[in-house]
Design a protein that fits this description.
Number of helices: 8
Helix content: 25-40%
Number of domains: 1
Strand order of the largest sheet: 1-2-12-9-14-7-6-3
Order of helices and strands: EHEHHHEEEEHHEEEEEEHEEEEH
Strand content: 15-25%
Distance between the termini: 40 Å
Largest sheet: 8 strands, mixed
Number of strands: 16
CATH topology: Jelly Rolls
Radius of gyration: 19 Å
CATH architecture: Sandwich
Shape: globular
Length: 315
């Protein structure tokens, strides 16, 4: 049940075949030869470790309640909920920067980021990382399109030319034995198309298969990618958004860097016309929230706003 590693330094048709195999068995796969700068990743790690070492009072200077509708900034330990239960993590929320003249300026989850004034170059490093991850996201979606027998630019031309870009930096403190029953992040699925996760070397990520939970350990200079609810919806459950969770039992600080590559905020989500037999749906897993994605109709905006209201109910 090992999670496959896909070399992205291959032709897209080969990548597509390997993504297809991964998505009907795990819903997760590692990516190597992704072309995202190692130097940039190291700079990002330095920003993260420097920020989370700051006193709480200083971190709260950019708290999410100051980000308003843009849904950006810092939340403290146990400040985010999964299925109504506080997660044992703290984090930073970022998104694409837009200006007041932009059509979406007044929309929720749009606006400007909050950056700590004490960390030099944090803005430049995070924006460059998001740029590189967006380019990688488009490349992955080309492979996913091919994996489904579609034109490689299908998603780009339909719902992801201007994706909703959401970037998070999470810090999971060491857990003592009394806290080992508290999840860093409880069981959940992601909302959009794909998530591209940079892990540190600590570990703790687990994914749910048909048989059991398995570890998704860090592998040097790879990202791990998983499919989200909207890809599940669009493929009529052929590609299932796989539940996952985090438990940090390492006695070390754990950092993770998920980048969510989502449909355009206003995109209408519709099922694809795929030539797939019902008995080919091999990765059916009971959802953590008991929701039937086939019943959802509407735009991605409608779906994600319903979801995030439960994550930070105080906002």
């Amino acid at each position: 049940m090992e999670i496959p590693i896909i070399d992205f330094n291959q032709p897209v048709d080969i990548i597509g075949k390997q993504i297809h195999s991964a998505c009907i068995t795990h819903g997760f796969f590692y990516i190597k030869n992704h072309q995202v700068s190692i130097e940039l990743q190291l700079q990002l790690e330095q920003v993260a470790s420097s920020f989370f070492r700051l006193p709480l009072k200083e971190k709260m200077n950019i708290s999410m309640n100051k980000g308003g509708k843009a849904w950006r900034g810092y939340f403290p330990l146990k400040g985010e909920l999964t299925s109504g239960i506080p997660d044992l993590k703290e984090g930073l929320y970022f998104g694409e920067e837009i200006q007041p003249h932009h059509n979406d300026w007044h929309e929720p989850m749009h606006g400007n980021n909050l950056y700590p004034s004490t960390l030099d170059n944090a803005k430049e490093i995070i924006e460059e990382y998001m740029t590189q991850m967006t380019l990688l996201g488009h490349k992955i979606m080309r492979g996913i399109a091919v994996s489904l027998g579609l034109d490689k630019d299908y998603f780009y031309s339909s719902i992801s030319k201007n994706p909703l870009q959401l970037f998070r930096i999470f810090h999971y403190p060491p857990q003592d034995k009394l806290e080992h029953s508290i999840w860093g992040v409880g069981e959940h699925t992601d909302y959009g198309l794909i998530t591209i996760l940079k892990q540190d070397n600590v570990g703790g990520l687990q994914i749910k298969t048909n048989h059991d939970w398995i570890d998704a350990p860090p592998i040097e200079n790879t990202f791990i990618c998983n499919i989200g609810d909207m890809l599940d919806k669009m493929t009529n459950g052929y590609y299932v958004s796989t539940p996952h969770r985090v438990l940090n039992t390492s006695n070390k600080d754990r950092y993770s860097y998920p980048f969510f590559f989502d449909p355009n905020f206003h995109a209408t989500i519709q099922p694809l016309e795929l030539s797939i037999n019902e008995n080919q749906k091999t990765n059916s897993i009971n959802r953590w929230d008991a929701e039937d994605l086939s019943l959802f109709e509407g735009t991605y905006k409608e779906y994600i706003l319903k979801k995030i209201g439960k994550v930070f109910p105080n906002l």
